[in-house]
Design brief:
The chain is globular, with a radius of gyration of 22 Å. It has helices at residues 22-25, 29-36, 54-61, 66-69, 73-80, 116-137, 185-205, 209-216, 239-243, 254-262, 282-291, 304-310, 314-328, 332-336, 395-403, and strands spanning 4-9, 39-44, 90-99, 105-107, 140-145, 150-156, 224-231, 247-250, 266-268, 297-302, 339-344, 360-365, 388-391. A hairpin with a 5-residue loop joins strand 3 (90-99) and strand 4. Helices cover 35% and strands 18% of the residues. The strands form two sheets. The chain has an eight-stranded mixed beta sheet with strand order 9-8-10-1-11-12-2-13, with helices on both faces.
Length: 411
């Protein structure tokens, strides 16, 4: 029985610059060859004009209406970081950042690159602070670093997700105080805990040895933690029960592992796949092809296209696409007898450096898929294809139909 390999370029969609986009420019002979044999279209991850986050977009792409199932990004980050959430736990997505003496954000990612030993040092300090603050307020605090500047903070006790972010979401703005968003004691307590952890970390960061070294090397210090997306674990029907599809996901990013795990996918990672713009894909694709023998659908997440977009790096984005395609080439014969989907979860134009709301290209190849006249995968070409314009919520039913796994609606 055939299976599906689904490659998703995070933030891969773009806007034309000089009449070209990274997908259009990239030399990707394997993807383009299969594009010429398949059907193309454009995809609104949620709906036209909605500017999605990666969390809500992936929920929709996996077949779950984010307006119904989304309960905050933090819970998915925690799941992806292998932090087991209990009922009532509140989890926040975090960034390690750099602020100046007035508390104004200089860099929301502290230069983005944070070495593993630096991340471990920060994790140790934050958990020590969390233990002390937790004792004071009667809550349990757990911090775990994930990839680069990213991490997750979990609060356990009489807490609430109904608090505001401390992340101002832009450079040049001041680090925010968390405020309760309702009149509950739990929200007030949670905001207090978040603010004290934030304040104490910035104080402790002044004496961190890693920051002394970073300054000597001309690198930005890690002297702030930004919290956002507080949430709790949603109740989600597993994908096998909802769509009759046995699915696996391969991802280096905690958020995507978390969303996949929340919907009941088996989650894997591979050497070289760390969720950065420098990822190598040989081992990830080798694993993906091996898993296709055991699963109806194997999902492979590529983070580097989003990271380079946020950095405004057009050539870097092209490089990520080309490296993925080169690693895909040895498996062309295998793919010809199965299904391949290539798309993105949202556009992150290099010129904007942020998520935007336009549709992204999508292609579907399969031995019995209608062939249209599109021969190159890109925003500039896929709109002419046979798939037309579809939503993220449409993808899983379409794949289930080709796999012969969906139930008939009506008699």
């Amino acid at each position: 029985m055939p299976s599906v390999l689904w490659i998703l370029f995070d933030g891969g969609g773009d806007r034309p610059s000089g009449g070209k986009t990274p997908f259009y420019v990239a030399f990707k002979p394997t993807i383009d060859y299969l594009t010429s044999l398949g059907s193309c279209g454009v995809l609104d991850p949620i709906s036209p004009g909605v500017r999605p986050g990666s969390d809500t977009a992936h929920l929709a792409l996996f077949g779950y209406d984010p307006y119904k199932y989304y309960t905050g990004r933090g819970a998915f980050e925690a799941l992806g970081a292998d932090v087991q959430l209990k009922p009532g736990d509140v989890a926040f997505r975090t960034n390690l950042a750099t602020v100046d003496d007035s508390g104004t954000v200089i860099d929301r990612r502290a230069g983005r690159y944070i070495a593993p030993e630096e991340a471990r040092a920060v994790e140790k300090v934050l958990n020590k602070i969390g233990e002390e603050v937790g004792r004071k307020y009667g809550v349990e605090v757990v911090y775990k670093s994930t990839v680069e500047h990213r991490g997750v903070l979990v609060l356990r006790g009489a807490v609430s997700h109904r608090v505001s972010d401390t992340d101002p979401h832009k450079v040049g703005a001041k680090l925010l105080r968390s405020e309760p968003l309702d009149n509950s004691k739990e929200a007030a307590l949670t905001a207090e805990v978040v603010n004290e952890i934030t304040r104490r970390f910035s104080e402790a960061a002044k004496e961190l040895e890693i920051n002394k070294t970073r300054r000597l090397e001309g690198r930005l210090p890690i002297n702030a933690i930004l919290l956002r997306g507080g949430g709790y674990m949603p109740q989600i029907e597993p994908i096998k029960e909802r769509y009759n599809i046995k699915a696996a996901a391969i991802a280096g990013v905690a958020l995507i592992r978390g969303v996949a795990r929340a919907v009941g996918m088996d989650v894997y990672t591979a050497p070289g796949l760390g969720g950065t713009k420098d990822d190598k894909f040989d081992e990830a694709l080798k694993l993906a092809v091996e898993l296709m023998a055991r699963y109806d659908l194997v999902f492979l997440h590529v983070k580097g296209t989003d990271s380079t977009s946020h950095d405004g790096d057009f050539n870097g984005k092209v490089s990520v696409i080309e490296r993925l395609d080169k690693s895909l080439a040895p498996y062309l014969d295998k793919l010809l007898s199965n299904y391949l989907v290539v798309t993105s979860d949202h556009a992150t134009p290099v010129s904007v450096k942020e998520h935007t709301g336009e549709p992204v290209p999508i292609m579907l190849y399969g031995p019995d898929v209608v062939t249209d006249d599109v021969a190159k995968f890109s925003e500039l070409t896929c709109w002419r294809g046979a798939l037309g314009r579809i939503r993220g919520l449409d993808v899983m039913p379409i794949l289930g139909s080709y796999l012969g796994l969906t139930e008939k609606f009506g008699e």
